[in-house]
Amino acid sequence: MTELVSRAQGVRFDELALATRNHGMQLEGMRYDITPIGMHYLLIHFDIPAIDPSTWRLRVTGSVERELELSLDDIRSRPATTIPVTLECAGNGRIGMDPRNVSQPWGLEAIGTASWTGTPLRGILDECRIRDGAVEVVFTGADRGFQDNVEHNYQRSLGIGECGRPEILLAYEMNGVPLPPQHGFPLRLLVPGWYGMTSVKWLRNIEIVDQPFTGIQQAAYRYQQDSDDPGLPVSRIRVRALMVPPGIPDFQSRRRTVEAGTVGIRGRAWCGTAPVAGVEVGVDGVWHDARLGHALAEFAWYRWSYAWDAHPGEYLLSCRATDADGNTQPTAPPWNLLGMGNNLIQEVAVTVR
Amino acid sequence: MTELVSRAQGVRFDELALATRNHGMQLEGMRYDITPIGMHYLLIHFDIPAIDPSTWRLRVTGSVERELELSLDDIRSRPATTIPVTLECAGNGRIGMDPRNVSQPWGLEAIGTASWTGTPLRGILDECRIRDGAVEVVFTGADRGFQDNVEHNYQRSLGIGECGRPEILLAYEMNGVPLPPQHGFPLRLLVPGWYGMTSVKWLRNIEIVDQPFTGIQQAAYRYQQDSDDPGLPVSRIRVRALMVPPGIPDFQSRRRTVEAGTVGIRGRAWCGTAPVAGVEVGVDGVWHDARLGHALAEFAWYRWSYAWDAHPGEYLLSCRATDADGNTQPTAPPWNLLGMGNNLIQEVAVTVR
Q1: d(C-alpha B217, C-alpha B156), whole Å
Q2: Does A178 reach chain B within 8 Å, measured CB to CB?
Q3: Do residues B221 and B338 lie in contact, with contact meaning Cβ atoms separated by under 8 Å?
Q4: Last residue of a domain, which of A195, A214, A233?
Q5: C-alpha span between B136 and B14 (Å, rounded)
Q6: Each residue of B15-57: pLDDT tens digit?
Q7: B107, A16: Cβ pair inside 8 Å?
Q8: Cβ-contact A340, A302 below 8 angstroms
Q9: Smallest Cα–Cα separation from B319: which of B353, B269, B277, B271?
Q10: Residues B91 and B225 in one domain
């Protein structure tokens, strides 16, 4: 059920209950190329399931010539790839929407970059020989609960064509260790370039289907203007830059205090649709080009920096990225009913002393 | 500055900004004896500091015969102990206070049990030979910021007598790996039995002092009735039991749905002042004895369980622990100005079907 509240009403207790369960990445974590485990963002729809890896099996069923039932050892014995991937929650920035949907109330911290190890999904799909007429692949997790009064296991689908991308993994390690329970142990899907909802955790079934999947978690991730608008599906990550807030914070307000002089403003930028072409830093609305580094990997964030000559006073710093297709970040939230894909420009108020 | 808001006003945006940075332990995490890294609670006053372990040094100064300057290798080469310890934030339960202080708005999830490895503090203090007249030891972290308009590095003190406890560690590993940045890398204090504020992270200085330390983080953790009341210092963890919410949740409301039949209600209990003597489970206010297991270790949580014969309907489940001194959990929040030590009984609404 979509339920909107306005910013003037403050935050609700049910939003808070989600905010303390789900974890944001402290933005100073952008200093690490690879986000340490425990700093990476986490969005968990239901409960973290308890799974015994010795009895756990992945079943591949549906419109295939050969169904599969694979143990964790079977999957680990297949060709393995390790790639750094930046993930972002589709709801990142939701709190900037006004009014906003009552859901996980992210500020800007629903991000992280991990080094994921797994076997390419494509190899598994080749092995089971998909039949003609199949259109999508449905991924089902072991996590179960209610959303909008519908009981279900968390499920998302991906088009057959998309599933052929070689970098889509069935991942069993994160940063060189077995997936922690909260990140999908023993196996999760990993879809580089897409918002995180597609990378189904605690994977237990892959079903190849002949009709588009219409489960609730497909409907829950759409760019709708209102509840009558079917909207477009949320898919790839929109271009975004974020800075590490400079200086030191106030505990409660998080407002920053910075020493005068040359201040290194640093951050990361990423985009799921095209390479990042440039990052700019705004100082009280005047934009300056930042120095953009290389991406850590094709689907991971770029490092950027800007040397700010800071004089005592009050300032509003901001940053924005532009991708190679010319897409940039908006100055007003790109409103949609469910509060998805809000890549509004970050603003950080600082006092220079 | 203490600033009170009432429950009727909802949650504030500055509380939310803290809630998304600081991490609660999902209560289903109580199924693990040792909380996986990334599920353990985190309360970070300022920013997570960036520390180069090769140049980092711990300095032991003040009222001693011999000051010390120790590298991480020096500390790792000393006698090592590994112990499981349950930590809880002193502000856990703050959201249940009405009115409440505007600070980190914990529900009940600011808990975790890790296996900590380090060298006993006592050995270091023996080596530097504390002078007569010393009364406290002040621990200073590398994390710096403002609180109540005072700029400071995070600092807490502990009495000389308390520092002689053999189980107080200078810890450099958590669950068998080097401390993650967010848990205090490269070294933190660990004071078993006390609320977490005393276990100073990112430790860089230990100073032995002849006068009681009066820093802001001592004042920030007191049981005051009002701002004129000096109050008593927050110290050891009050007795508490929590249950893993049974059944499956609703995403937004977190309300639980449970299948009729025998339902295993499970949880943990802990207390920093005395052993846990018993745990009871309440079903609509009628109390039943739970089966209490052994503690995992002297300063770690106990496992408990209760087999509930559940019939279809709506129920309010609760649990409460009692310690060997006869202290139990209150039915109304034990109000204090700063929202500390609220060990109010947990209540979980469930639908049995």
Answers
A1: 6
A2: no
A3: yes
A4: A233
A5: 34
A6: 999 999 999 999 999 999 999 999 999 999 999 999 999 999 9
A7: yes
A8: no
A9: B269
A10: yes
